[in-house]
Amino acid sequence: MGSKAASFTSHVFLLVLYLFEEYYNMKYVRPVTSKMPGLQYRAVFFTTWNLMAHTVFFSSCVLADFIEGVLGKKAAGLRKVQDYVLVSILFPMSMIVMVVFWGIYAVDRELIFPASLDHVIPPWINHVWHTTIVPVLLLEMYMVHHKYPSRRAGLTGAITLGLVYLTWILIVAKVGGFWVYPFMAVMTGFQFVLFCCFTAAIGCVFYLMGELCNNVFWGPRETPRKQKKRA
Q: Residue 45 and residue 43: Cα distance in Å, rounded?
């Protein structure tokens, strides 16, 4: 576990995959549907935020691998930032994207990914967006030991991201005149609040799931109190 060569290879592969997906998406994918007016503004989607976060994260992994493996220097500061971003933001965000997307898709796909998009968005891109995002992070957590921050600090990061995106959705609805996702247009105000609370709750659960997976892979994280007693 934790082979540097294997982790470097996976980092490069994933970075190339995300860059190619973005190139293909911008050059060849031109979805036009009245059911999702936000498609002409890709930055409004949480999926886009997530893919950009993946791209930046694995770019930083390749950079850190190069600094340590080729230049022979330490990248402790960069690794520390990677640890926090992965466990507090990227993993919970990816879980929300995957679970919410496929959950709504199973109930009524027209509310999240209209059938008309099948003609313009290849299945492999849809799966890069909404399926593989979690397995690749679990693989990363298995191959590389990412240290978890305190639970309070970690959950603070996850909750802050959720509040930022919620604010963004409301701004788009107010200024742009449309809801980012079609299912939000059919919700009452009360239902929208319930959905936000539910998403926040499962986001916290997903953070704890990531912590559990990390403990399974690498053993329980020692708390400052335990470390002090051992010293």
A: 6
Is the pLDDT assigned to residue 94 strictly greater than 80? yes
Nearest to 33 by CA among 210, 192, 178, 209: 178
Q: What is the pLDDT of residues 36-49, one digit of tens each?
A: 555 566 778 899 99
Gap between the Cα atoms of 206 and 212, Å rounded? 10
Q: Please say whether the dihedral angle defined by the alpha carbons of residues 10, 16, 19 and 25, taken in this order, is positive or negative.
A: negative
pLDDT at 2 (0 to 100): 47
| Residues in contact with 130: Cβ distance below 8 Å, sequence separation at least 6, in sequence order | 47, 97, 98, 101, 102
Tokens 């694995």: give the residue.
58
Q: How confident is the model at residue 205 (pLDDT cuts 50, 70, 90)?
A: very high
Best CA proximity match to 157, nearest among 102, 91, 108, 218: 91
Q: Residues for the chain: how many in total?
A: 231
Q: For the segment 7-57, what is each residue's pLDDT rounded down to a tens digit?
A: 999 999 999 999 999 999 888 876 655 555 555 667 788 999 999 999 999
